[in-house]
Amino acid sequence: MLTIAMVSQKGGAGKSTLALNLAAEAVERGRRVLLIDLDPQGNVSAWGDRRGARPPDVSAESPANLDRALRQAELEGYELTVLDTAPHADQTALRAARAADLVLVPCRPATFDLEAIKATLDLCQIAKRRSRVVLNAAPIRSRVVEEARGAVTDQGGNVSPVVIRNRVAYQHCVIDGRTAAEFDPHGLAAQEIAALYDDMMTCLGADTVGSMA
Fold first, then answer.
1. What's residue 210's pLDDT?
2. Distance CA 176, CA 154 (A)
3. Which H or E run contains 58?
4. Are β-strands 33-37 and 2-6 bridged in parallel, bridged antiparallel, or unpaired?
5. What is the pTM of this model?
6. Are 134 and 161 in contact (CB under 8 A)?
């Protein structure tokens, strides 16, 4: 079983939206997926409630119970777990990072977000886990993306080539428990999530389609 942790010490980075869309993309690729909500705010859990019985499975867990939850998930045959964490929760984020095979770090290409990302990158180093920065909610057309990429690289971050743009599909889909791909199957948001999933699995050395067994 592989585990992905979504971590950002900056609020509003878009962790929950990416977590649920990537988890659902993995389901579409034929994997059994558990999405674990470690954020007391419970955005992912609320989305799961609105989604009903449709996969991925969603579970709210306390950080103290994470290791046990992951062991149980593996026993139950899950192939991938995706962890959503709260901002400004160092111990929870560190626990999630240490449990993960890869940490994804969403970051908006904005000054305050770029200034705050060093704390998250340092946390990943403390956890001794690989991290991949995802530029998220980026303007559709702007040179700020390349500037942000350079700023993250200068701080030692490994930046994904896939950029997630600021598209309405990401906001509208969560209202009734859908994903960007379900909201607009042929839209650019769906294509971005598929590309980010491929990049994530490439980083893990895993196949993008089919069982990891």
1. 58
2. 40
3. strand 57-60
4. unpaired
5. 0.95
6. no
Q: Compute the distance between CA of residue 83 and CA of residue 65 in angstroms, rounded to an integer.
A: 13
Amino acid (one-letter) located at 8: S
CATH number of 2-204: 3.40.50.300
**Pair of tokens at residue 162:** 């896939």
Report which secondary-structure segment, H or E, holds 32: none
Interaxial angle between packed helices 144-154 and 111-127, expressed in degrees from 0 to 180 and rounded to the nearest 10: 30
* pLDDT at site 212: 43
Tokens of 80: 């991938």
Query: Which pLDDT tens digit goes with each residue over 144-181?
Result: 999 999 999 999 999 999 999 999 999 999 999 999 99
CA pair distance 75, 16, nearest whole angstrom: 25
Distance from C-alpha of 19 to C-alpha of 15, rounded to nearest angstrom: 6
| Structural tokens at position 168 | 């309405």
Helix ranges (DSSP H) in 100-162: 111-127, 144-154
The residues spanned by each domain of the chain are: 2-204
